[in-house]
Write a structure and sequence with these properties.
Elements lengths: L10 H5 L1 H5 L3 H13 L3 E4 L5 H11 L5 E4 L9 H13 L3 E8 L3 H7 L12 E4 L6 H12 L5 E5 L14 H9 L5 E5 L5 H11 L4 E4 L7 E2 L5 E2 L2 H6 L4 E4 L1 H4 L4 H20 L2
Parallel strand pairs: 1-2, 1-10, 2-3, 3-4, 4-5, 5-6, 6-7, 7-10
Antiparallel strand pairs: 8-9
Helix pairs in contact: 4-5, 6-7
Bound molecules: 5-bromo-uridine-5'-monophosphate.
Length: 276
């Protein structure tokens, strides 16, 4: 197998069973990017101006593996400005992940991939709730197919926020069962604030799908308005394959150094895991 440019280790060696078992082509792309960048950091770029977003990516882009957006959060959004921003993200070798949390029936979700924001044309990955049933994944994949693209869906199996209803008995199991055999499913969202919950989720998911985790911050504990945070090393050790970090990076006055710190922690944790 070919070593990725800039990667001192083979992705198969670093990712182990996860690399061999995954059945979504984007999952391997992500694992390769993570090796090239030596980072498992997905930046939650939750800023509300295009200039702020562009500045942020220029500061921390080299230390990220993917970029997570909320396209409907931007006050001065324009199609042209967004296209330029996506091109900038791609120039930093980042997968684009719109955290849209789709939840409707299949045909409507397909349509919502189009619309003013035309998510299907630029996002590689989107999030979805499974509340409406498993066909939402087919609807979202049909959306990508409508523009000749392929993407992957991250299903919410857990959430990081306090009191969320995904904690009710049976929900996470149902979500995993619904998504585990669907090749359109890139992976699952797990609760980054709880290594114990992540360990349980990883057992349910096995190696076939990735788990990405929000609710990660070096300052562990309760965040604003019900958000909860766990430690990045603990999340990866417990089975997360990507840490989603927002305010921990963009609110720092030393964004570049902090992003690198999260990247180093995540990469070392992955190497520690593959050595187990
Ligand atoms: P933070 O600033 O690191 O707390 O940002 C977390 C991001 O992850 C933010 O964009 C949320 O929309 C997103 N998120 C989350 O916090 N918890 C979840 O369970 C899910 C997404 Br799903």
């Amino acid at each position: 197998m070919r070593t990725q440019p800039g990667c001192l280790m083979e992705p198969a060696e670093v990712w182990g069973a996860r690399w061999d078992a995954c059945d979504n082509s984007l999952s391997r792309r992500y694992m390769e990017v993570a090796c090239r960048k030596q980072s498992l950091v997905i930046l939650a770029a939750d800023l509300r101006t295009m200039s702020g977003l562009n500045e942020l990516i220029d500061q921390v882009g080299p230390h990220l593996a993917a970029l997570k957006t909320h396209v409907d959060l931007v006050d001065d959004w324009t199609a042209k400005g967004w296209a330029d921003f996506c091109a900038k993200a791609s120039s930093y070798d980042l997968l684009l992940f719109e955290d849209r949390k789709f939840a409707d029936i299949g045909p409507i979700s397909r349509g919502q991939m189009a619309g003013a924001y035309d998510i299907r044309s630029w996002a590689n990955i989107v999030t979805a709730h499974g509340i409406s049933g498993p066909d939402i994944v087919d609807g979202l994949c049909a959306g990508w197919n409508d523009v000749g693209r392929e993407g992957g869906v991250l299903l919410l199996a857990q959430m990081s926020s306090r009191g969320n209803l995904l904690e009710l008995p049976g929900y996470t199991d149902g979500m995993v069962q619904a998504g585990i055999s669907n090749p359109g499913v890139f992976g699952f969202i797990g609760n980054g604030s709880s290594p114990d919950e992540l360990t349980v989720l990883r057992k349910k998911v096995g190696d076939k799908k990735l788990i990405w985790t929000p609710g990660v911050n070096l300052a562990v504990g309760d965040g604003e308005m019900g958000q909860r945070y766990g430690n990045p090393n603990d999340a990866i050790q417990a089975g997360s394959d990507g840490i989603i970090v927002g305010s921990g990076i963009y609110k720092s006055s030393e964004r570049k150094d902090v992003a690198k710190a999260y990247a180093d922690i995540s990469w070392q944790a992955l190497l520690g895991r593959s050595g187990q």
